[in-house]
UniProtKB/TrEMBL annotation:
Residues 45-64 bind DNA. Residues 1-20 are annotated as: Disordered. Keywords: DNA-binding. InterPro entries: Homeodomain-like_sf (IPR009057), HTH-type_TetR-like_transc_reg (IPR050109), HTH_TetR (IPR001647), Tet_transcr_reg_TetR-rel_C_sf (IPR036271). This is TetR family transcriptional regulator. Residues 22-82 form the HTH tetR-type domain. The lineage of its organism: Bacteria, Bacillati, Actinomycetota, Actinomycetes, Pseudonocardiales. Residues 1-11 have a biased composition (Polar residues). The keyword Ligase does not apply. It comes from Saccharothrix yanglingensis.
Length: 210
């Protein structure tokens, strides 16, 4: 019979601690985004990601089977982070507060992770792209959250006649994404409140005349 460690006898969980694993994955996420944002996913190596994250190369392979698996997982992780911020809008009572929360969540996320926005744009519109399929599904996840808030506007009679909820949702997602990138790349001196108000003015312009 194999010897049993004290940790196993007492029922403790062996292996890496969940908190430490999550922290390591976040380091890899930040490092990969920085490098991918600078040079594109294809030219970045595992060695560079490990060095940027301050971990051993073996740590990357311990958490992910390959660089492609790392990028794929980190794309999903990034969208999960973004989705969590956008879902805060679902707890708002009024449509105005919900839309403000939605825009704040999107712009705030891309202000914190500008490279992720660049990656989304470059890969979503790259046909064919290595991660186009994954990003297409992830885009649908985000747009579905946006659609929920646009549906609230429609239910409240706040969309002009003939404007489809699906079209308006995709347009709003695209607007927020492009505005966020334009802000970070060309107008970094503007603050979040100013950029948010610009987007909300566009949204308010969709309302039918009083």
């Amino acid at each position: 019979m194999d010897p049993v460690s004290p940790q196993t006898r007492t029922g403790a969980v062996t292996g890496p601690r969940p908190g430490r694993t999550a922290a390591t994955k976040q380091k890899l996420f930040d490092a990969a985004l920085k490098l991918v944002g600078e040079r594109g996913a294809a030219s970045v190596t595992v060695d560079e990601i490990a060095a940027e994250a301050g971990v051993a190369k073996g740590t990357v392979y311990y958490n992910f089977a390959s660089k492609d698996a790392l990028v794929d997982a980190l794309l999903r992780h990034g969208v999960d982070l973004l989705a969590a911020r956008l879902r805060v809008a679902e707890d708002e009572d009024g449509t105005e507060a919900a839309m403000t929360s939605l825009v704040d969540g999107m712009l705030g996320f891309f202000a914190e992770y500008p490279a992720f926005g660049q990656l989304l744009v470059s890969e979503l519109w790259r046909t064919p792209g290595q991660w186009h399929g994954t990003l297409g599904l992830l885009r649908d996840d985000i747009v579905s959250i946006v659609r929920g808030q646009v549906q609230r506007l429609a239910d409240a009679g706040r969309l002009p006649e003939g404007v489809q909820v699906g079209t308006a949702s995709a347009a709003l997602f695209g607007t927020m994404l492009v505005v966020a990138l334009d802000w970070q790349v060309f107008q970094p001196e503007r603050d979040l409140a100013e950029v948010r108000e610009s987007v909300l003015l566009l949204v308010r312009g969709l309302r039918p005349p009083a």
